[in-house]
Amino acid sequence: MIRVLHSVSNMDRAGIETMLMNYYRRIDREKIQFDFLANKPKPGAYDDEIRSMGGNVYVSPGLSPWKYPPYIKFMKELLHDNPDIKILHGHNEGMMEYALKGAQKAGLGVRIAHAHNTQIIRDYKYPLKVFCKSFIPRTATEYFACGRDAGIYYFGKKRWEERGFTMHNAIDPQSFTFNDDTRTRVRRELNLGDSLVAGHIGRFNLQKNHKRLIEIFAELVKAVPDSVLLLIGEGELEEQTRDRAKELGVEDRVRFLGVRSDIPELCMAMDIFVMPSLFEGLPVVGVEAQAAGLPCIFSAEVTDEVVILPQSAQIPLSASNGEWVKKITACAEERFDRKKAIEPVRAAGYDINTEVEKISKMYLGWANK
Fold it and tell me: 17's torsion region: left (phi>0), alpha (psi -120 to 50) or beta?
């Protein structure tokens, strides 16, 4: 058996982490085990499940300039003490350079850099992230991405086209198969009645653009007064989002549901999914929503690779809120059999049962060289 060490922030319920757990639950754990290198000390929501499946969660010294020497030392010791770790698979933006460099210094032969985004969030670590990102193409041995645009952003067009591999943000489409009874039950539990229900799933941060989402929704309420917005997630900008909803007078129409484990059921209860992100790699929630037969409206800044259903669409962020509302209502009113949505999702390469076989062969091929 070989072990693959995944470098992440921590294993909370978020897009990258959920994608990894989709693969981990279905991989042949007699041949391949996953371990996780958490770079934040906060315990993750998936930690107990990981340990129950035989995985380990290691906590690094942290990602800051003054912790770089102890980080490299930590990686050398970790890989020396665990010789069955054959592959380092990095996921955490430009900062995955820390784990990649530590693995390189330790002599680990397979070091995967996995691009998940098309920009880096401009927070206080932005200069450090950009600096570290510049070294990744030389430190990594393999180039992975969730999609074309993310791969080009992290590795350059030439490297990506010559050596890049798309590891799809795959899901179990069957678990998202639309069910009328589930929709009725969840809408009753949330007291949604016959409202037009728009939804969004994502961390409350700058990238997800919740401020604009609330502004679009406020315009939607003018056109369709009996509208409700479901927001699933948590994050540093949640209070600002609540404040904006109050300022626009729609706080009673916006439901903040927090982090949830019943995403398929919530998607079935929605009528439209709206994602006005400032940038994205390829959001797994967009794949999940469409598997549930949910029309999605993405900003044009989200890669066009995410548009799977003919009922889904993109619209520029430069478009007015009124134009967004016209697109939302038009897509929400279109009638189609939501149960049939899983087939296009499978055909687009997002069925975890197929994708896990591809990645398993790659892991084992590299480890057995």
Answer: alpha
Helix then strand then coil, in percent of the chain rounded to 5, is: 50, 20, 35
- In Å, the largest CA–CA distance within the chain is 62
* Domain 173-347: assigned CATH number: 3.40.50.2000
> What integer pLDDT is reported at residue 369 of this predicted model?
66
Cα dihedral value 123, 127, 130, 136, nearest 10: -110
Task: State which amino acid sits at residue 282.
Answer: L
**Which residue type sits at 130?**
V
Residue 334 burial class via C-beta count within 10 angstroms: exposed 0-12, middle 13-18, buried 19 and up = exposed
Residues of the chain with pLDDT under 50: none
Parse the chain into domains and list their residue ranges: 2-170+351-367, 173-347
**202 φψ region: left (φ > 0), alpha (ψ -120 to 50), beta (else):** left
Report the C-alpha gap between 94 and 368 in whole angstroms: 29
pLDDT at 14: 82
pLDDT for residue 95: 92
Question: 2-170+351-367 in CATH: which number?
Answer: 3.40.50.2000
pLDDT tens by residue, 144-195: 999 899 999 999 999 999 999 999 999 998 899 999 999 999 999 999 999 9
Hey, which bits of the chain come out as E strands? Answer: 2-8, 32-38, 57-59, 85-90, 110-115, 142-145, 164-166, 196-201, 227-232, 254-258, 272-275, 296-299, 313-315
CA trace torsion 106, 110, 111, 117 (10° rounding): -170
